[in-house]
Design a protein that fits this description.
Bound molecules: cytidine-5'-triphosphate
Strand content: 25-35%
Strand order of the largest sheet: 5-4-1-6-9-10-11-12
Structural class: alpha/beta
Length: 214
C-alpha cells in the first residue's frame, strides 16, 4: 500500500464576520472531514486537519488547526500544503464575505438593509495552481443538478486529481449535517466510482482506501 508522509484535510464551515456579534456561515457539520482525518491517520505519518468552527472531537493522532474565516483557512492550508503528499479539501468554504466588517455592533433602522459581499479566495484553486509533482489533490463538489458534469468541470478548473461529487438535492443522499453520505469519485482520466449511501465513517474509510490504491 502507498505510504503517505503527510495528509492535509480541511473540514467544517467558515464564518464571515458582519460585526462583532454577527456572521455568515452554512450548515456544514464537519463530520465528513473529521471522518476522513480519522481514516487518514491510520495510513500517514502525520495528519493535519484545518477546521472551521464545529462541535466534534479531534480524532487521535491528528493535529488540528482551528480557523474561522475563509481567509484564515486559506492561510493555514497554503502554509501546511508545502510538504503534504495528499490534500483533501472537504470544508464548506464561504464563497463571499461582507465587504465591510463593522467595528461596533450594527444598529437597526426602519428601512431595509443591504449587505455588500465580496468574493473570498478559492482555496482549492490556489492549491491546484501551486500543486507539486507527487502531490495528490482532491476536492468535493456539492451539486443539486448536472452533478457529474459540474463536478468534472470543477476537477479541470481547479487542477485536481480527484473530485468527490455529492448530490445535495435530496435528503435521501445524505450530505450536509447528516450522519450518512453517498458520493461518486471522478478522477482525471474521467473514471467514475460510485459509493453507495453509508455512514460518513465507513464512507471516509472507503474514500481513503480508493485514493490510496490508485
Ligand atoms: N472551495 C474552496 N474555496 C472556496 C470555495 C470552495 O477551496 N472559496 C472548495 C471546497 O472545499 C470544495 C470545492 O472547492 O472542495 C468545491 O466547492 P463548491 O462549493 O462545490 O464549488 P465552488 O468552487 O464554490 O463552485 P460553485 O459555487 O460554482 O458550485
Amino acid at each position: 500500500m502507498k505510504h503517505f508522509k503527510k495528509i492535509l484535510i480541511s473540514a467544517g464551515p467558515t464564518r464571515e464576520k458582519i460585526d462583532p456579534v454577527r456572521f455568515i456561515t452554512n450548515r456544514s457539520s464537519g463530520k465528513m472531514g473529521y471522518a476522513l482525518a480519522e481514516a487518514a491517520s491510520s495510513i500517514a505519518d502525520e495528519t493535519v486537519l484545518v477546521s472551521g468552527p464545529v462541535n466534534l472531537d479531534v480524532p487521535a493522532n491528528v493535529r488540528c488547526i482551528n480557523v474561522e474565516s475563509a481567509a484564515e483557512m486559506a492561510r493555514a492550508m497554503l502554509d501546511e500544503a508545502d510538504n503534504a503528499d495528499l490534500i483533501i479539501m472537504c470544508a464548506a468554504v464561504a464563497d463571499y464575505r461582507p465587504k465591510f466588517v463593522h467595528e461596533n455592533k450594527m444598529k437597526k433602522s426602519d428601512g431595509d438593509l443591504t449587505l455588500v459581499l465580496e468574493r473570498t479566495e478559492d482555496i482549492l484553486k490556489s492549491l491546484g495552481a501551486a500543486k507539486k509533482t507527487n502531490q495528490i489533490l482532491a476536492g468535493f463538489a456539492a451539486e443539486t443538478n448536472d452533478i457529474l458534469q459540474n463536478a468534472k468541470s470543477k476537477l479541470e478548473r481547479k487542477n485536481l486529481d480527484f473530485i468527490i461529487a455529492n448530490d445535495v438535492s435530496s435528503s435521501s443522499s445524505g450530505g450536509f449535517g447528516k450522519d450518512q453520505n453517498a458520493v461518486t469519485i471522478i478522477d482525471r482520466s474521467g473514471r467514475m466510482e460510485v459509493f453507495e449511501l453509508c455512514s460518513k465513517k465507513e464512507l471516509a474509510e472507503q474514500i481513503i482506501e480508493y485514493i490510496v490504491s490508485f
